[in-house]
Amino acid sequence: MPTFTKEQLPELNQRFRTNLINSLSGVKTAFLVGTADMDGLTNCAVFSSIVHVGANPALLGMISRPNTVARDTIENIQTTGVYTLNIMSTEHYKGVHQTSARYNHDESEFEAIGGINPEYIDGFFAPFVKEAVIKIAMNLAEIHHLNINQTYFTIGEIAAVYIPDELLQEDGNLNYELADILTVAGLETYYSARKIEQLPYAKK
Amino acid sequence: MPTFTKEQLPELNQRFRTNLINSLSGVKTAFLVGTADMDGLTNCAVFSSIVHVGANPALLGMISRPNTVARDTIENIQTTGVYTLNIMSTEHYKGVHQTSARYNHDESEFEAIGGINPEYIDGFFAPFVKEAVIKIAMNLAEIHHLNINQTYFTIGEIAAVYIPDELLQEDGNLNYELADILTVAGLETYYSARKIEQLPYAKK
Q: Which of B43, B189, B198 to mutate to test the interface with A (most CBs of A within 10 A)?
């Protein structure tokens, strides 16, 4: 069985190590994050590090590295205080992946990439992704700078969420098989999700 | 289309809101976290908030709330400095979910739950899950207390990772369809993952 210790990891080929370590967080949802700068110039980038932080207040967190293509996203969130989180269906996986390319600040992914279009809802400053199945408006709450590797952990409060009627169950859960939600492992391998079973609250 | 604003969310039925907000982080991998207290009494709990923090050093983060069944996990990590992250295949979904029940501190989930057994590898103090497909030994790096809702963001460095030969691709990516990786949305709905396509590095 292949084993890699913390002494061996730095010795690996950089691309192999990057793929391996990025894969170890498993399969997770590929979100498109929509932002704009103070002039309204839009940006759209794929993030797969969105985590639940709390339900009341409703908080979501995300990890981003300042030296990546996510830089515009974080700068826009810091200056405007708002962003959107967009859950996509699998049919859009090529467009979602294309947002990870290194576009310049003055090039909007919304214009450069087919099938990924901006949408403005209820006067919210940041653009949503028109093609998304679930759209979440976020207000920046706090940004934690992680000294350990110069990464940012950004926490936002949900300002509003937009959900198609057929995906919302009576108990508040969302039907992600029906949504055909797009997920990703590592930096470039896309997956779909098939429901196994919803289980009751676990008791001992 | 159902819409919930931040003014409306606090008015919702608590269980509905909890399910809805927990669902909004999408489908993500269900990890079993293995720990032990200073006396070696073991604990195993499901976490779905594991995120990639960095590849070199190799860092993973996770969110936990102190007032949940995850309390033993965090206390054990704080006192011993070590824990394990275990990726499971779908066949174990009922056992994985059962770890979310409220067992007392002196009851080990490894003993109480069938099909979830401890395994010790290379002298690492924290128990792995024997049935896991991918096993990761973690050293605690830092714990951030999030004042916004009294949640902890725990960052650990990968001490070692154990991967079956057939799941490791030549490029360092892991084949999670072959692993039949277990994923979850919200608190109780389990999913499997089907590979769509591995795409090349995106260029503009």
A: B189
pLDDT range class, residue A67, cuts 50, 70, 90: low
| Radius of gyration of chain B measured on its C-alpha atoms | 18
| B contacts of A201 (beta carbons < 8 Å) | 187-188
Partner residues linked to B137 by β-bridges = B84, B160
How far is it, in rounded angstroms, from Cα B163 to Cα A26?
A: 13
Q: Which residues contact B107 (CB under 8 A, 6 or more apart)?
A: A204
Best A15, A19, A20 member to test B by mutation, with max B CBs in 10 Å, is: A20
DSSP summary character for residue B34: E
Q: For position B151, what pLDDT does the model report?
A: 93
Q: What pLDDT band is residue A1 in, cutting at 50, 70 and 90? A: confident
User: Would the pTM count as exceeding 0.90?
Assistant: yes
d(CA B137, CA B79): 16
Among A159, A29, A138, A143, residue whose Cα is nearest residue A75 = A143
Q: What's the farthest any 2 CA atoms get from each other in chain B?
A: 56
Q: A85: helix, coil or strand?
A: strand
State the CB neighbour count (10 A cutoff) for residue B8.
Answer: 12
- Complex ipTM, two decimals? 0.96
Quick one: CA torsion of A141, A147, A149, A153, rounded to 10 degrees? -10
For chain A, the maximum distance between any two Cα atoms, rounded to a whole number of angstroms, is 56
B141-183 pLDDT, tens digit per residue, is 999 999 999 999 999 999 999 999 999 999 999 999 999 999 9
Q: How far is B157 from B57, CA to CA, in rounded Å? A: 7
- Backbone phi and psi for residue B20, each to the nearest 5 degrees, phi listed first: -60, -55
Say what the pLDDT of residue B39 is: 96
The answer to whether B202 and A100 have CB atoms below 8 angstroms apart is yes
pLDDT at B110: 97
The C-alpha atoms of residue B55 and residue A129 are separated, in whole angstroms, by 29
Q: What is the pLDDT of residue A192?
A: 98
**Residue among B25, B59, B189 minimizing CB distance to A148:** B59
Coil, helix or strand at residue A52: strand
